Amino acid sequence: MTNASSVLKHPLLARTFVELADTLVDDFDVVDLLSLLSERCVEILGVSSAGLLLTSAEGELRVMASSSEAMRAVELFELQSQEGPCFDCVCSGKQITNSDLATAQELWPRFAREALNAGFHSVLALPMSLRGSVVGALNLFSDQVGLMDEQDVVVAQSLADIATIAIFQQRAASESQVINTNLNIALNSRVTIEQAKGILSERLVIDMAEAFSHLRGYARSHNLLLVNVAQTIIDGTLEIHR
Amino acid sequence: MTNKRMLRILTELNSAGDESSRSRSLCLVCSKIVVVTGAGIMIMTDDKQRGSICSSNSVSALIEDLQYTLGEGPCIDAYRDDQPVTEADLQGNGFARWPGFAPAVLSAGVRAVFGFPMRVGGIRLGAMNLYRDRIGPLSDDQHADALVMAGVAARVFLGMSAKELEDNSDLRLNVHQAAGMVSVQLAISVGDALIRLRAYAFANSRPLDNLANDVVSGAIRFENLGYN
């Protein structure tokens, strides 16, 4: 997938780990952090698109974060609740890789078609595991045919592991009830942010990606959690202007 | 990839019929799915209890009434803290937590109570309460069932039918973006906007996520539809 060695990219990788470690100490926003992680995957690993999906208690695979908020990118993650590398990855608990999506039409008819249409040619899905159970997957797309460098796969897996820690560290995640509750809260916060994006996009006449960066910018400059900003917009107690 | 937990709920909802949304049967489903003595659902807005939409038996009805009157109890805490509330031994620990509520329901035979917040994203609807006539925590399995059930109950309250729940089309992110947009177009709450979207999709035989795409792209604007 990528020619540059991950060693060359280590400065950014190290900085990402430090940043994440810093974030994890304080109260932080799960969607904000996971979005940052997806964006960094693209920069560090040289892939075209990255996304994080979590399994809900209903058994559905749902999108938590994406390196791009463009509808097309998000849809490719969403449709994997039915078929695709993330679906297979979560079912098997193993890394799923496909180096040439043109050969995957039989394996994943709808997913392969949509991914090729979007300009992607290879894909990798890495499991997010917690105490023996798979809670989600990190999904990486490349516009090139080919396998990802082995060292990069190791880096990607460690980023997936960090994402898992981020979601479950808030409380001592020792029991299944706490794990399920946290998953539920995380997935709900993603939906909350989407509703607030809709409100902002309509009010300010901007697209969804702009609405997301607007929300994020406001949260950061006011030192608030993204989900709390989104909630106050939905409750009608906060208005954000351009 | 709907799992067994969700399938059980859908089967129960289907056999409960169309009226399940605002009748006792939704609470009967809750109580049956989690295997507790009784269940109730309390709707709240702006930190005020607005009333019960259903209860599976007379003790559950009492639990709801008392919370409404006293302003304390598992639903109130679950809604306020946005977290599941468990009180596995009402007599042992519940009195300090809810000095008015706990003794009153204890004398009606309640020994353990649980509250689960009901929300769809930022639409906060209220909470589901469950009670048992014996002391003890929920098992991990029951807790997971209760979480899923509270989510389903919230979606049913926003007008989703069992068929729509099965399709999960309301879980697509664009549906919630569209709900946010429609809430501004019609100057209504996001919850009401979701109900409008769903009603429009149903009336026009369109999948909800497909309609949502048109709303997000601007092809359909609800203030132009002439029925607000």
Characterise this structure:
The complex is a heterodimer of chains A (242) and B (228). With 242 residues, chain A is an alpha+beta fold. Chain A contains nine helices and five strands. Chain A has a domain at 10-171: Beta-Lactamase (2-Layer Sandwich). In chain A, a hairpin with a 5-residue loop joins strand 1 (49-55) and strand 2 (61-66). In chain A, helix 7 (176-204) packs across helix 9 (226-235). Chain A is globular, with a radius of gyration of 18 Å. The model of chain A has no long low-confidence stretch (mean pLDDT 88). With 228 residues, chain B is α+β, with helices and mostly antiparallel strands. Chain B has helices at 4-16, 24-34, 58-70, 74-81, 90-97, 101-106, 140-157, 162-167, 173-186, 190-203, 208-217; strands at 38-45, 48-55, 85-87, 112-120, 123-132. In chain B, helix 2 (24-34) runs antiparallel to helix 7. Chain A binds chain B through residues 56-63, 71, 74, 78, 81-82, 87, 175-177, 180-181, 184-185, 188, 190-203, 208, 230-231, 233-235, and chain B through 1-6, 82-84, 119-123, 138, 140, 143-144, 147-148, 151, 168, 171-174, 176-185, 190, 213, 216.
Shape of chain A: globular
Q: CATH superfamily name of the largest domain in chain B?
A: GAF domain
Structural class of chain A: alpha+beta
Rounded average pLDDT of chain A: 88
**Uncertain runs of chain A:** none
Largest interface: A-B, 42 and 39 residues
Q: What percent of the residues of chain A sit in helical stretches (DSSP H or I)?
A: 40-55%
* N-C termini distance of chain A: 39 Å
Overall 3D shape of chain B: elongated
Q: How many helix segments of chain B?
A: 11
On the 0 to 100 scale, the average pLDDT of chain B is: 89
CATH class of one domain in chain A: Alpha Beta
Radius of gyration of chain B: 18 Å
Summarize the structure.
The complex is a heterodimer of chains A (242) and B (228). In chain A, 53% of the residues lie in helices and 14% in strands.
